[in-house]
Amino acid sequence: MLSLNLLLNYILLIGIIHLQILQNQLKTLNLTNNSIEMIKEKTFQGLDNLVILYLDSNKIFEIETKSFEGLYQLEELYMMNNFIILLKAKRFNELEKLKKLHLYLCNINEIESDAFQGLNELTELVLSFNMISVIHNGTFSGLKNLKQLDLFLNRIKEIDLNGFKGLLELN
Questions:
Q1: Distances in whole angstroms, Cα of residue 132 to Cα of each of 35, 111, 147
Q2: Terminal CA-to-CA distance of the chain, rounded, Å?
Q3: What 3-state class would DSSP assign to 164?
Q4: Of 70, 130, 135, 158, which has the most beta carbons under 10 Å away?
């Protein structure tokens, strides 16, 4: 299992061309503690067998549509300690096999409906230590296998009537 650790560097932007050299060999990619500000469309295309991706402690404020296209085997995505103030809809929908998504300490204050659409296999979602104030209808729709939802230490003041609708497997 090939693992690439680029922890504690000064990477600003991840380019498709740079990662395609590794193609189908790479299983784990660690880009923690860099200076990445945005994840552009199709950034990880060609990393078909990547299982674990670490994007912790960067400066990510924007995730473009189809940013994770091509990560067909990804099971774990760690994006803690970033600056994603608005978690937009359909940013993760290509990640059909994703089981763990960690987005704590990301300064998130709003989650659009369908933000987690397509994550049918997700079992663990960590949104702790953010600034989420409202849980809207449809926020967690489609997460039928979710077993752990962590919203610890947010600023939740309002939960819409169907805010947690469909979460049948929570422990």
A1: 24, 8, 20
A2: 32
A3: coil
A4: 130
Extract the runs of DSSP E, i.e. beta strands, from 31-162: 38-39, 52-54, 62-63, 76-78, 86-87, 100-102, 110-111, 124-126, 134-135, 148-150, 158-159
Answer whether 128's CB lies under 8 Å from 154's CB: yes
* Residue 128: other Cβ atoms inside 10 A: 16
What does the pLDDT look like over 113-168, one tens digit per residue? Answer: 889 988 999 999 999 999 999 999 888 988 999 999 999 999 999 888 888 887 87
Encoded tokens for 34 = 């860099």
Instruction: Give the pair of three-digit tokens for residue 26.
Output: 């790479």
Distance, in Å, from the CA atom of 151 to the CA atom of 39, rounded to the nearest integer, reads 24
| Amino acid identity at 98 | L
